[in-house]
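Re: the request from the purification team.
They wanted to know what the chain is likely to look like in 3D before they choose a buffer screen. I agreed to run a prediction and write the result into the notebook, where they can find it.
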Amino acid sequence: MRFTVAIDGPAAAGKGTISRVLARRFGFAHLDTGLLYRAVGKRVMGGDDPLVAARSLTAADLAAPGLRDPEVAQAASRVAVIPEVRAALVDFQRAFARTEGGAVLDGRDIGTVICPGAEVKLFVTASAEVRARRRYDEDMAAGHALSYDDVLAEVRARDDRDTNRADAPLRPAEDAVIVDTSQMSVDEAVAEAVRLVEARL
């Protein structure tokens, strides 16, 4: 069986958590496509050319330490606006999406560009303030000393880059179901996603 769940949305909306739970629940393979861009961004921080990094990513790059650090996230957002970098990573993502047994991919252009034919498309979102609070709490727990105001400014700057880039801007696919997690608990958001997937299986 080949069954693709495409989950898009801005940073810290909950799409990663939902994607991981769906993959475990249904036995699907899971790809956090943002990790690809984080790995490229980290290599660029180390001096590599963005396109060279994108074309030569390895499993080791995807397992490199520090990929969740805030500065790597910002580097990922910067390389993600480069059309040639995005093109270099498309084939990998599309092949993964048709993994036998089903696949869940989360990112920012999965339902619109990578997998427009996905059986399920979700757009997971939340207000910038709620997302900034979540990211601030995560960063504090990880020992990163940023103020809430700084995190909110970064969230808004990233949203601006993601939604206004020329190539594959962040937006819901026309047939995506919008899941706004601003007022939802994790369990409520996951339950809604599970219901939507079960309806299509």
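For the purification team: The first strand starts at residue 4 and ends at 8.
Please add any questions underneath this entry.
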